[in-house]
Amino acid sequence: MGRPLAHDAARDLDRVVLDAEVLAAQNDGRPVPCRSVPLALTSAWVDADDDPRSDALAALACAGCAVLDACRTFGDRHPEVRGVYGGRSDAQRRPRRGRPRKTA
Ligand code: SF4
């Protein structure tokens, strides 16, 4: 059993909006590091193996991105997508399991 279609549609729409922001930034000459490095280096963003060195490299590059906030919002809203979004790895964006934190 998969995710509800409405969730998939919302993710697709959010992706289109993020891609539009990325394109606008690139057209204005603002930096979007993951879209401007050589193809061989993009694995730092898309590797699904939670390699901490790779994730740290991508997060460092993300820090200078023109769409950092929008990308982070997308990644946080859709933790099922793999890779680094807005400087955060999928492990960091994945909801924590287990008992809720003690609050008092
Ligand atoms: S914040 Fe990072 S992953 Fe998101 S568009 Fe910018 S460089 Fe790419």
Which descriptors apply to this entry?
mainly alpha; binds iron/sulfur cluster
Would you mind describing this structure in some detail?
The protein has 104 residues and is mainly alpha-helical. The protein has one domain. It has six helices and no strands. It has helices spanning 5-27, 33-36, 43-46, 52-62, 68-77, 90-93. α1 packs antiparallel against α5. The longest helix is centred in the first third of the chain and has 23 residues, at 5-27. The structure holds iron/sulfur cluster. Iron/sulfur cluster binds at residues 22, 32-34, 45, 61-62, 65, 67-68, 71, 84-87. Iron/sulfur cluster is lined by residues 22, 32-34, 45, 61-62, 65, 67-68, 71, 84-87.
Treating each run of at least 4 consecutive H or I residues as one helix, how many helices? 6
Sheet with the most strands? none
- The N- and C-terminal alpha carbons lie at a distance of 38 Å
Enumerate the spans where pLDDT stays under 50 for 5 or more consecutive residues.
none
- Can you list the ligands bound to this structure? iron/sulfur cluster
User: How many beta-strand segments?
Assistant: 0
Q: What is the strand content?
A: under 5%
Shape: globular
Mean pLDDT: 87
How many domain modules?
A: 1
Structural class by sheet pairing and helices: mainly alpha
Tell me the series of helices and strands, N- to C-terminal.
Answer: HHHHHH
Radius of gyration: 15 Å
Please estimate the helix content. Answer: 40-55%
